[in-house]
Amino acid sequence: MQHSDETQRAARQESARLTAESVHGVALTWVDNAGLTRVKAVPVGRLAHAATRGVGMSPVFDVYLVDDSYTTSRHIGGPDGDLRLVPDLERLTVLAAQPGWAWAPVDRYDQQGRPYAACQRLFARRMARRAAERGIELRMGFETEWVVQRDGTYPWAGPAYGMARVVELSDYVNEVLRTLAAQGVEVLQIHPEYAAGQFEVSVAPADPVGAADLAVLVRETIRAVSVRHGLTALFGPAVEAGGVGNGGHLHLSLWRDGRNLCRDGEGPFGMTDDCESFLAGVLDALPALLAIGAPTPASYLRLQPSRWAGVFQCWGLENREAALRFITGAPDDPDGANAEVKCFDPAANPYLVTGAVIAAGLAGVAAKARLPDPVRGDPAVTGADGPGDTTTDRPGDTAADDKATRGGTGAPARLPRSLPEALDHFERSDVLRAALGEALFEAVLAVRRAENDLFAGRAPQQIADATRGRY
To answer: Are the C-beta atoms of residues 88 and 56 closer than 8 Å to each other?
Structure first.
């Protein structure tokens, strides 16, 4: 936390700019371990004070659950303590769909100005810095999927990926694009997705912290535009039990001195050694990473075979059924080569996702890990076995799921089918525990256990109903 004259001067300049643009309030946001974006707001005249002294907030929100109840952990819990929320002025954005408002993400510090050990945004920044120390720059980007309803119904007949749905909601989709552009967000593509009322938008990659910031900004922009059109935007991983849910796929590429390490190497499909080792580390850690990227019981309603959700611990070239999908890009497009982690969803805290993926990837680089053979086709059809196949907690089983369970030796393993199974892997992960630090690791673990207990015994649709509108 900085009290410098330079910071105060910059904040005053920003305050004057915002006032000239008729902005009166600044929303200061962070994302808790349950994946909810929390906020404190200040009037523009207090922005300079917030930037130098912070805004007070209890640390107990790090053990809040999706229903606003809370648990406790070894290091965090109860009414004691206070933190300072310090806005990142470089990310300050005037909100085009909320006249009179601006937004900035915050870093969190204690009262003495020291970095708060459980700040997820500082964790992501720390992991990006650790990668930079190894000469690796990460570029990341999230896909945002959501479902729109009006009064609980889908009054649009347009098919999946169909132009009819864009026509039916032409003004709405246009305003999403216009608003994001006005906020300086570069949209790569937007389209109707598979489920009823579902859309997806992809934005240009950024640094790991910036990518997580954009995930928050894009979601809240979509929410605001939806409200202005009388619509409800649902970002939960499962909207209708048994249906295709919302994904929160993460794309990433590795760079060094302006060179994309995902291409022009001697490894699989042109990967360099560092790229292959990084992706091998991520692939190996996926069972534990699910506790970060698929953090709620509702996530496991979405994680079903043959739905492009990436439920098998394997990788493949352009294979949308693999949990880790590699994309080479066009030969003349140096930016095109990247990898996609498909098994994550919008209930995840994006700062935890980017930081944890970097930690896992760097562990692979340190070990000089190598990828197994890539997988072609759908493992649910070709067969799968391995750890996790004996789990009995299998919501939404399908015939394909049964066939996967009976698969042959050597086929890819199914990723955890339930939150408790993912937590078993997470709790045993020395890599993630060391990267997160005890305070943050234990808080994440406590929230996941408490949410599992919260939804124990509920029917799949009850879980979907309770969570789909919360994120």
So the answer is: no
Question: Distances in Å between the alpha carbon of 458 and those of 229, 339, 451?
Answer: 33, 36, 12
Question: What's the one-letter identity of residue 5?
Answer: D
Give yes or no for residue 399 having a pLDDT over 60: no
Q: What is the average pLDDT value for the chain, to the nearest integer? A: 93
CA distance 141 to 338: 10
Pairing of strands 101-109, 25-31: parallel
Print burial letters for 345-371: b (CB count within 10 Å at least 16), e (below 16): bbbbbbbbbbbbbbbbbbbbbeeebeb
The strand pairing partners of 438, in sequence order, are none
Q: Which residues pair with 85 in a beta bridge?
A: 55, 108
Check: pTM over 0.90? Answer yes or no.
yes
- The single-letter code of the amino acid at 197 is G
- pLDDT over 50 at 396, yes or no: no
- The answer on pLDDT for 406 being more than 50 is no
The token pair at 413 is 């393993």
Residue 401 scores a pLDDT above 50: no
Q: Beta strands 101-109 and 187-192: pairing type?
A: unpaired
Cα separation, 174 vs 187, in Å, equals: 12
Once rounded to an integer, what is the mean pLDDT over residues 141-158?
A: 93
Residue reference for tokens 């004070």:
49
**Residue pair 147/471 in contact by the 8 Å Cβ criterion:** no
For residues 358 and 271, is the Cβ–Cβ distance under 8 A? Answer: no
Positive or negative, the Cα torsion across 48, 52, 56, 57? positive
Render 217-262 in DSSP notation, one character per residue: HHHHHHHHHHHHTT-EEE--S-SSTTS------EEEEEEETTEETT
Predicted pLDDT at 157: 80
The residue ranking higher by pLDDT, 308 or 3, is 308
